[in-house]
Amino acid sequence: MNVLVISGRLTADAEVRTIDSGKSLLSFSLADNEIYYDTEGKKVDTVEFHNCFKWSKTIPKVADFLIKGRSISVKGRLVTNRWKDKEGNDRSRKALRISELNL
Fold first, then answer.
1. pTM exceeds 0.85
2. CB-based contacts of 29: which residues, under 8 Å, 6+ apart?
């Protein structure tokens, strides 16, 4: 089963792109923090960044609420996006394909 649930803060305002079919692509980066104490009792604060996206026709309405710093929760599937760059090299990037978004 490939299901992730992440809560965090938006690192920038969400971006929306619309293609010819009328579908819109919502994309943003989400940061989540983990604070723990190492074996010596020293406080450690780490941050993970997650690329997230969703295809839908209703995205532009939601995007107005997705501004930098806002705390949100997303649920989705981890996918690998693959493409060739301008030089013809194979490239890939992991991203979360959103199925649920909670403001």
1. yes
2. 10, 11, 12, 49, 50, 51, 52
